[in-house]
Amino acid sequence: MRDKLRQWDEGWARGEAAIATFVLVSLVLVAALQASLRNLTNLDLQWANDALNSFDWADSFMQKSTLWLAFFGASLATHGDKHIAIDIFSKIVSPKARAAMRGIVGIASGLICLLLAQVFWMSVMNNAKE
């Protein structure tokens, strides 16, 4: 059972990493294209100005992508135990207490992530209505 959960967790983390990579590449490409179009409008190229006007979704996309990227990064950091931690408690307690603390922190982190994801999803749905 434990191996199945660990395997599922690793697969989930790989999926998150793939999505985070896609979001990051998309974010960079959209930002680069928008910046290039802005620079080309300074040369009085009408097609660049028209393209930039049809690119009005880019700022909103980049804001939301940055937030999604932060969530995926936090999740991956937690998965790899690379997040910020207060180590003094884990150094002074017994291994059993350390394992219990890691479990409690993991569950609390998961619940907080779920709540934040729910709030973010409600925000996305709210913005989609507008």
What this model shows, in words?
There is one protein chain. The chain has 130 residues and is an all-alpha fold. 85% of the residues lie in helices and 0% in strands. Helix 1 runs antiparallel to helix 2, helix 1 runs antiparallel to helix 3 (58-79) and helix 3 runs antiparallel to helix 5 (95-129). The radius of gyration is 21 Å and the shape is elongated. The chain starts with a helix and ends with a helix.
Question: How many E strands?
Answer: 0
Radius of gyration: 21 Å
Mean pLDDT: 86
Task: Please mark out the parts with pLDDT under 50 across 5 or more consecutive residues, or reply none.
Answer: none
The SS-based structural class is mainly alpha
What's the order of the H and E elements?
HHHHH
Blueprint of the fold:
Elements: H1 2-41, H2 46-53, H3 58-79, H4 87-92, H5 95-129
Helix pairs in contact: 1-2, 1-3, 3-5
Fill in the keyword field for this structure.
0% strand, elongated
Write a short abstract of this structure:
The chain has 130 residues and is mainly alpha-helical.
